[in-house]
Amino acid sequence: MLALLGLLTILLLLFLVITKRTSPVIALILVPVLTGIVAGQLAGLPGMIADGIQSIAPTGVMFVFAILFFGILLDAGTFQPIIGKLLNIAGNDPIKIALATAILSMLVHLDGSGAVTFLVVIPALVPIYDQMGMKRITLACIVALAAGTMNILPWGGPTIRAATALNVSVTELFNPILIPFLFGLLTVMVIAYFLGKSEKSRIGEIQPSPDFQENNSVNELHRPKLFWVNIFLIIAAVTVLILGWAPPFVIFMIAFAIALLINYPSLADQKTRIDAHAKEAILMASILFAAGCFTGILKGTGMMDAMAESVQSHLPDQLGTQLPLLTGLIAMPASMLFDPDSFYFGILPLLASTAEHFQVSALEVGQAAIMGQMTTGFPVSPLTGSTFLLIGLAGVDLGDHQKKTIPLAFLVTLVILTVSILMGIISV
Fold first, then answer.
1. Dist. CA 86–CA 124, nearest whole Å
2. To which H or E segment does residue 284 belong?
3. Residue 127 contacts by C-beta under 8 Å, 6 or more apart in sequence?
4. pLDDT digits (tens, 9 = 90+) for 154-170
5. 322, 61 in Cβ contact below 8 A?
6. Where are the domains of the chain?
7. DSSP sequence for 311-353
8. Tens digits of per-residue pLDDT, 63-102?
9. Sign (positive/negative) of CA torsion 91, 93, 97, 103?
10. How many other CB atoms are found less than 10 A from the CB of residue 360?
11. pTM for the whole thing?
12. What distance in Å separates the CA atoms of residue 339 and residue 387, rounded to the nearest whole number?
C-alpha cells in the first residue's frame, strides 16, 4: 500500500510539473500532503514536514546568498575587463575566438544562471561571429557546452537540488568530483578548439577585424576600481568552500555582506541591489523548502523505503549494483524528458533509496546525476526557458542547435563519468 502511494505521489508530481498544471512549489507541497493523509498519517505530517525543511535549510540559505553574492559582482561589472581583454587577444583568429567564447561563458556562469550567461555572452559575440563569417550555431554550441558544464558547481541548480533530495551538503556531493568536473571543462575547451579550427578551414583567408572595443558608456553600477578586490572575494569564497573550512551557507553569507558593503556602501543602493536579485533567490528558495516538505513526508510515512524495497525485489542484482553508472549514462538524455524539479525531487530519491538497498552509495547516484541531468543537458532541453533564450539571441533553429550540441554535451558527460570511474568515485 505504501509503495503504491509513493509511486502515485511521484507520478502526480511529474504530471503536474511537466504539464505545467501547477507551479512546482504547489505540487511539492500539496501532493505529498494529500497522499500522506490517504496513508493515514495526518497527525504526523507537521512533524515530517518540519524535519524535511530543517534538513534542507542550510542548502536553501546557501543558495539565496550565493545568488545575491554573484549578482552583486555582476552588477559591479567585475567580469567586463576580462571579457574585453579576452576578445582583444582573440583578434581575428576563429580558433582563439572559439576558445574565448568558452572561457567567457564559464566566467559569466559563475552565478549559476543560464539566462544571465546567454544575455551577457551571446549579444557581445554575435557581431564578432558575423563579421568573421563564423556560424552562429557554433557560437550557440560552445556557449551551451560551457554553461552546461559549469552548472555542476556547488551553487548550481542541479547540485543544490540533488543535495536537498539526498539530505547531504553540497560540498559532500561536489568535492569528490572536482577533478572530473575540471576534466569536463577541459573537454569543452578541446571541443571549442576543434570547432574553431573547423570554422577557420571553412572560412579560408580571414579579413582583419577591428579589436574589440569596450563599451565606454558609463554604467553607474560598475566599480572598476574594485576589480581586484572583487576577484579576490570570488577566489577566497570558492577556495574556502572547496577546502571545507566553513559551511557553504556561512561562506556565502559573509562573502555577500562584504561584497555588498564594499561595492555599494550607500543604504539606498544596497536595498536596490538586493531587490534586483530577490525574485530569483526567493523563487528557488521556495522550491527548495517545498522539496523539504515533499521528501520529509515520503521518508516519514515510509513510502520511500517501501518503493525502494519493491524495486529491489523486481530489479536484478546485477543492475541494482550498477545504479550509479546507469544514472550517469541516462542523466544527460533525461534532461530532454524531465525538468530539474521533477527529476531531482521525484526520480533521484527513489534511485538513491533503491541503490542503498543494494548496498550501493546513494551519494554516488547523486554525483552521477549531476554529471548530465540539467547540467550539460540544460541548454538543449526544450523544458528550460533559457534554451529558447539561447537560440533566440543567437538566431538559430532549435533542431539545428540540438543536432549539433547534444552529441557533444553527451561526450562531456561521458568524460566526467569515465574520469570518476577511473578515480573510484563511481563504483562499477
1. 12
2. helix 267-300
3. none
4. 888 899 999 988 988 89
5. no
6. 2-213+221-422
7. HHHHS-HHHHTTHHHHHHHHHHHHTTT--HHHIIIIIHHHHHH
8. 788 888 888 988 888 877 877 787 788 778 899 999 999 9
9. negative
10. 19
11. 0.74
12. 12
